[in-house]
Amino acid sequence: MASLHDFVNLDLSDTTEKIIAEYIWVGGSGMDMRSKARTLPGPVTDPSELPKWNYDGSSTNQAPGDDSEVILYPRAIFKDPFRKGNNILVICDSYTPAGEPIPTNKRAKAAEIFSNPDVEAEEPWFGIEQEYTLLTMSKWPLGWPENGYPGPQGPYYCGNGADKAFGRDIVDAHYKACLYAGINISGINGEVMPGQWEFQVGPSVGISAGDEVWAARYILERITEIAGVVVSFDPKPVPVCDLVPFCFFFLLLATTTLVGSSCRLA
C-alpha cells in the first residue's frame, strides 16, 4: 500500500517534462509570505520565461473586495528543495492590472534604485543576518519551561547540548535546503535566547540580496510547517523578554569601506 510520503516524493521526470512552479510573494502585513503553484510545460532557467499570474488581493489585505485582482511579476528563480527535480520557487512582486506597484510592493522601488547606473557602478555587496525564534504551536519559545522563563543569557549563544540548543534539526534542514535552492546562505548559529537562531545570507550583489533573504524565509516557513513548529521574525515574540531577534546587514561598495546597520523587524 502506498503512503502519503510516496506520493509527495514522486519523481515527475520519469513521466513528464512538465514542472511545478511555486509563485511566492509578500502579503499585506509586509512580513507574511503567500504562495501558490502552477504547472509549466517544461524547465525554466530565467524569470523572463515565466508567465505573469494573478491572485485575490482582498484576501491578503492588499486590495479592496470590489477591485481585488493583483498581478504577480516573476523576479527570481530558485530550485525547489521540497519537490526537487526541475521544479522551482519563484520570488514575485505585486502590481495592479494597470502595471502600477501596489503599496506593499517595496521591491519595485528597490529595483529602480539598484538599476541606476551610478548604483550599479558601485556594485553594492550585502551580507544579511536574519535572526528568528522557534515557537511551539501555543506560541511559546522552544526550550522555555512551560509557563515559565529560561535562565539568564550566557549558555545559549552558539551553544551545544540538549539543554542549550533547541530545534537544531530544523535549523540544519533549513541550511541544507537553502544551499540546495541556490541561495547564498553563508552560515548559521544559535543565538542568546533558547529557541532563537540566526542565518546569514551573502555576500550578495544588489537586489538579489533581498530576493535571497525572502526565499530563505519562505523555505524556513515551510520547514517549520512540516515540523509542526512556528517561526517568528518578531522582535519581541514574548513581550517580557529583552533578548530580541533582528535583521542586521553589512554593505560593501566598490568605492567605500564596510558599513553596517541593524533593523528590528517590528
Automatic annotation (TrEMBL):
Q: Which GO terms describe its molecular function?
A: ATP binding; glutamine synthetase activity
User: Which SMART domains does the record cross-reference, listed alphabetically?
Assistant: Gln-synt_C
Bilayer-crossing residues are none
- In this record, what's one Pfam family? Gln-synt_C
- Swiss-Prot/TrEMBL catalytic activity: L-glutamate + NH4(+) + ATP = L-glutamine + ADP + phosphate + H(+)
GO annotation terms (biological process): glutamine biosynthetic process
Localization of this protein: Cytoplasm
Q: Which residues form the GS beta-grasp domain?
A: 19-99
Domain GS catalytic: start-end pairs: 103-266
Chief localization: cytoplasm
* The protein's Enzyme Commission number: 6.3.1.2
Keywords tagged on the record: ATP-binding, Cytoplasm, Ligase, Nucleotide-binding
List, alphabetically, the GO terms of the cellular component aspect: cytoplasm
SUPFAM superfamilies linked: Glutamine synthetase, N-terminal domain (SSF54368), Glutamine synthetase/guanido kinase (SSF55931)
InterPro entries assigned to the protein according to its UniProt record, in alphabetical order: Gln_synt_N, Gln_synt_N_sf, Gln_synth/guanido_kin_cat_dom, Gln_synth_cat_dom, Gln_synth_N_conserv_site, Glutamine_Synthetase
How it assembles, according to the record, is: Homooctamer.
The family annotation for this protein states: Belongs to the glutamine synthetase family.
Its recorded name reads glutamine synthetase
Organism per entry: Linum tenue
